[in-house]
Each structure stands twice: as C-alpha cells, then as structure tokens.
C-alpha cells in the first residue's frame, strides 16, 4: 500500500509538495474546483518542478469542468515536465458543481470522459458522438515538444456500487471510503466481476481509500489551534456534503445529526442568490469564523481518525491487510508540520507487526 496527500491548487504549492515527497508520500492529489481554488494545471506544474519523485494529478476533476480533449492535453503536457509521475482522478464533482449552482455530473459522463482521455493518452484517436454528429479527436503532433501522450493511471472516485461497477470497466483505480475490511473485499469482488474494456483485460483495478488522520498524544490537543485548523475544514465540508445530499437527519450518521440540523438552518440564512457561493467559503482549507461553532472535539473525531501515532499506524496496517492499494489522506492547515509529524511519529511504525500478520511499506 502506498500513501497520498490532498492539497489545494495554488501557485504556493511547492512547500507542501516538497514536504509530502520528503515524508514518503507517493501521490499528491490536487483539489480541482474552479470557483474555490487556483487552476489545477498551473499548480500541478509548480508541484512537479519542485519535486522529483512524487506522482501528481487532479483529485478529483469532473467531466463537465473541461472537455475530455482538454483533460488529455493537460495530462500529456505535464508528462513532458514529469515523465511517469502524472495521474488523473475523476468524479462527478459534488463541490465543483454545487458551488456553480449546478448538479453534479452523471456517472455516464465520467465513463465517457475516461474513455476519451484514455484513448488519447494511449496514442490513438477517440470517437465522440454529439447528437447526430460524430468526430475523431487525437493529438496531431504527439512526437513534437508540446505533449507526450502516455498511458497514465486513471482513477475514478465512486462511493457507491454503480459507480464502482463503472470504474471496474474503464479505470485503473477506484477511490472509495474506508469502511473496514469486509467493505473493501466486497469492492474488490465487484471490480473483479466487471466487464473490462478490451485494452484493460488482465489488469487489476486498484482500490484507494480517502481518509483523514491526525496524530495526537492527548485528547486535550483537540482544542489546540493547529489541530482545529487541520480538522475544522473537514468538519464543515462533511456538513456541507450531508446537507446537500440528504433530506433529513435520519439519513446521516448519528455523530452529525445535530450538526446537520444546525448547518441546514445556517444555510437558510444565506442570500439565496449567492448561497451556492457563500456555502463554500473556506472549503477544505480554512474554517470561516462564523462556522467555528461546528468544530468540536466530537465532530473532529467523527471526520478523522484522531489518536496516538501507534493507533494511526495500526489503522493503516489494517487497510493494507484488507487489500487496499492506496490510501490518500485529507487534512488542512500547515501541511509541512503535519507531514513531518506523520513521517517522524507514524511512518517508522509501519514496518512493525500490529495484528500478527501485517507489514507494509510507506511508498511503492
């Protein structure tokens, strides 16, 4: 199993990228949301120029954000700057679309986008049908200095079985929630039975989990400003997601039911004309002052595994034993100090045996 880290797309990304690479992370996932962060392609270029080993890619883009040929162009251009270090994460775009006051993409859009990007990066042409019009798209100068089309890993974010079936058909990897060993084994079985595209037959779809972790030595640390800065944005993000996708508190996890009702009431106080914008202030990077009340020790513990370095290392080892190929971690705040703490306190424990059978390496 290898480890990735999510960061926001910004031209000041270099220190976080260097810290992640130095700590031993294998992937750097760049949040891709047009009204919230900077341009992902520009941030990715800064990150690849500041590093030499870590893989870098959108995490995740959505198929309605840019045409598939533009996605392929971005990846093939990054391949010129960082050969073999580029990947793509693709999903329906919950935050990116809701912040535009638009619905998320359909899974069919994700599948079609993935097929075109793969065909173009594999060096061939992709057939696109729009209405009664059919066209072929491909790189015209693949041997020039502008692009280097290469088969890059394509990951699909799919938390439900229908999306996972689709990922099994067209993707190299699927990003899911970590819900324990049995859930991972169910996903692996689902991926193995998916009817594969001819070009993917014989290749196993990797399973990646999206998770949040924060090492602390004592529960009192949950009141420290740096811990609140790291986990507070994840609390607010979860409440935003739940209030956008659930109809009642009965549909959300027990730990978030009180917050769900309170946050939904807060949303109603926002101007309807700009609610879709104001609702995403600070998204995944900082907690707006008027939303600090939602960040409690209980809510922080509900969005992340908060505990001793040994407890966090044990959970990572459990993921590896369950068959997870990749774990990508979310956090906000000071990436450099968090990476250093993970590297110094957690990662050295990952070669030790926690449950009688599990050993893992930090990066592939």
Calculate Rg over CA atoms.
20 Å
Tell me about the largest β-sheet.
Answer: 9 strands, parallel
CATH class term of the largest domain:
Alpha Beta
Report the span from N to C terminus: 7 Å
**Helical proportion, percent range:** 40-55%
CATH homologous superfamily annotation of the largest domain: Luciferase-like domain
Number of strands: 11
Write the element-wise H/E pattern from the N-terminal end onward: EHEHEHEHHEEEHEHEHHHHEHEH
Which runs of at least 5 residues are low in confidence (pLDDT < 50)?
352-364
Question: What is the count of structural domains?
Answer: 2
* Rounded average pLDDT: 92
Q: DSSP strand (E) fraction?
A: 5-15%
Q: From the 3D structure, determine the CATH topology of the largest domain.
A: TIM Barrel
Total helices: the number is 13
Q: Which class do the helix and strand fractions yield?
A: alpha/beta
Q: So, CATH architecture of the largest domain?
A: Alpha-Beta Barrel
CA-based shape: globular
What's a concise summary of this model?
The protein contains 13 helices and 11 strands. It has helices at 14-23, 40-50, 68-81, 94-98, 107-121, 161-170, 181-193, 225-245, 257-268, 275-278, 297-303, 309-322, 335-346; strands at residues 2-7, 27-30, 55-58, 88-90, 126-130, 133-137, 154-157, 173-177, 206-215, 305-307, 326-330. The radius of gyration is 20 Å and the shape is globular.
Explain this structure.
The structure is a single chain. Helices cover 41% and strands 15% of the residues. Helix 7 (181-193) links the parallel strand 8 (173-177) and strand 9 (206-215). Residues 352-364 have low confidence and may be disordered. With 364 residues, the protein is α/β, with parallel strands linked by helices. The protein has two domains: 2-214 and 308-351, TIM Barrel (Alpha-Beta Barrel), CATH 3.20.20; 219-301, no CATH class. The strands form two sheets. Strands 1, 2, 3, 4, 7, 8, 9, 10 and 11 form a nine-stranded parallel sheet that branches. The chain has a two-stranded antiparallel sheet with strand order 5-6. The termini are close together. The protein contains 13 helices and eleven strands. The chain is globular, with a radius of gyration of 20 Å. The longest helix has 21 residues, at 225-245.
């Amino acid at each position: 199993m290898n480890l990735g880290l999510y960061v926001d797309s910004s031209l000041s990304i270099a220190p976080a990228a260097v810290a992640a690479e130095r700590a031993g992370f294998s992937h750097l996932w760049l949040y891709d949301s047009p009204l919230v962060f900077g341009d992902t392609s520009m941030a990715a270029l800064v990150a690849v120029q500041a590093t030499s080993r870590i893989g870098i890619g959108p995490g995740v883009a959505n198929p309605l954000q840019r045409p598939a040929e533009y996605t392929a162009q971005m990846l093939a251009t990054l391949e010129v700057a960082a050969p073999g270090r580029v990947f793509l994460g693709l999903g329906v775009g919950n935050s990116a679309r809701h912040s535009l006051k638009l619905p998320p993409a359909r899974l069919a859009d994700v599948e079609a986008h993935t097929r075109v990007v793969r065909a173009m990066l594999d060096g061939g042409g992709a057939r696109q049908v729009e209405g009664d019009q059919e066209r072929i798209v491909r790189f015209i100068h693949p041997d020039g200095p502008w692009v280097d089309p290469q088969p890059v890993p394509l990951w699909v974010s799919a938390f439900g079985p229908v999306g996972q079936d689709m990922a099994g058909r067209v993707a190299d990897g699927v990003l899911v929630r970590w819900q324990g060993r049995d859930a991972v084994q169910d996903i692996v079985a689902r991926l193995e039975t998916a009817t594969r595209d001819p070009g993917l037959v014989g290749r196993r779809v990797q399973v990646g989990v999206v998770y949040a972790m924060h090492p602390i030595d004592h529960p009192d640390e949950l009141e420290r400003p740096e811990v609140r800065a790291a986990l507070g944005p994840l609390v607010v993000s979860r409440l935003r997601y739940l209030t956008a996708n659930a109809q009642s508190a009965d549909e959300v996890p027990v730990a978030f039911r009180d917050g769900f009702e309170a946050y939904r009431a807060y949303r109603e106080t926002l101007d309807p004309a700009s609610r879709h914008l104001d609702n995403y202030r600070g998204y995944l990077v900082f907690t707006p002052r008027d939303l600090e009340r939602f960040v409690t020790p209980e809510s922080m513990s509900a969005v992340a595994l908060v505990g001793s370095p040994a407890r966090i290392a044990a959970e990572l080892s459990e993921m590896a034993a369950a068959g997870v190929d990749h774990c990508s971690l979310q956090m906000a705040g000071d990436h450099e100090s968090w990476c250093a703490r993970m590297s110094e306190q957690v990662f050295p424990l990952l070669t030790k045996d926690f449950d009688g059978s599990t050993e893992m390496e930090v990066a592939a």
